Amino acid sequence: MGQLDGKTALVTGGTSGIGLATARRLADEGAYVFITGRDRTRLDAAAASIPAHGIRSDISKIEELDTLAEEIGKRGKGLDVVFANAGGGDFAALADVTPEHYRDNFDRNVAGTVFTVQKVLPLLNEGASIVLAGSTAASEGVPAFGLYAASKAAIRSLGRTWAAELADRKIRVNTVVPGPIETPGLAGLAPADQQQDLLDGLTSQVPLKRLGRPEEIAAAVLFLASDQSSFITGAELPVDGGQIQL
């Protein structure tokens, strides 16, 4: 028996990296999994590989989140697990920040998370678990990464507030905090000729002297999603090789 037998889960941004690894782990533990992605070809390939039910959706577009909730609702089973994983960001020093860069970071990471959770809120079964995707960047002062870090600090705050708001429904809300994880998105923060230097620099900052694997974040999300963490809510779980702990 799996830890999530009979449960239904949603993983946003489930076509690669942490989202894909987590969706696969939840499915392996018995959950019926919905995943989202913006690119139909990648979404279909990921859904087939898990297997999962893929729904094309851009979390920065409210109307697409309405469609997402409607599609999940048609199954009639509600939701027991939500991993609000979709998001992203890039580097920009204060002097170079533009309104477009600001909106991109906050629309994806903050508004996207807020309205994803809001739209599926009526579908959440009593005792459901919401896991938000944070970042160690929210606890650091990384030059030129201020908007992304601020957006992830907002996620941490929202997790605490929602945990208090939803406690009467026995819904738990926690935040998983990845450190540098070996994904295409991490390498993609730098131009191709600088990617290895970026990865080497990040590795040097981790006490365990390696990058994390997506499967290690997936294991942490499973813990927060399952009854193994039944007395944990409003918490932040770093999975960072000790980066912001030591």
Brief synopsis:
The chain is of the alpha/beta class.
Label this structure with key terms:
246 residues, alpha/beta, seven-stranded parallel sheet, 17% strand, globular, NAD, oxidoreductase
The whole-angstrom Rg is 17 Å
Helices, by number, come to: 8
Percentage of β-strand residues: 15-25%
Largest sheet: 7 strands, parallel
What order do the strands of the largest sheet run in, or round the barrel if closed? Answer: 3-2-1-4-5-6-7
Distance between the termini: 37 Å
Pattern of helices and strands:
EHEHEHEHEHEHHHE
Give the tally of β-strands. Answer: 7
The gross shape turns out to be: globular
| Helical proportion, percent range | 40-55%
Which structural class do the helices and strands define? Answer: alpha/beta
What would you note in describing this structure?
- There is one protein chain.
- The protein has 246 residues and is α/β, with parallel strands linked by helices.
- 41% of the residues lie in helices and 17% in strands.
- The protein has helices at 17-28, 40-49, 62-73, 99-120, 146-165, 184-187, 195-204, 214-225, and strands at 8-11, 32-37, 53-56, 79-84, 124-133, 172-178, 236-239.
- It has a seven-stranded parallel β-sheet, sandwiched between helices.
- Helix 1 packs across helix 8 and helix 4 (99-120) packs parallel to helix 5 (146-165).
- The radius of gyration is 17 Å and the shape is globular.
- Keywords: NAD, Oxidoreductase.
- Residues 7-184 form the Ketoreductase domain.
- This is SDR family oxidoreductase.
- Belongs to the short-chain dehydrogenases/reductases (SDR) family.
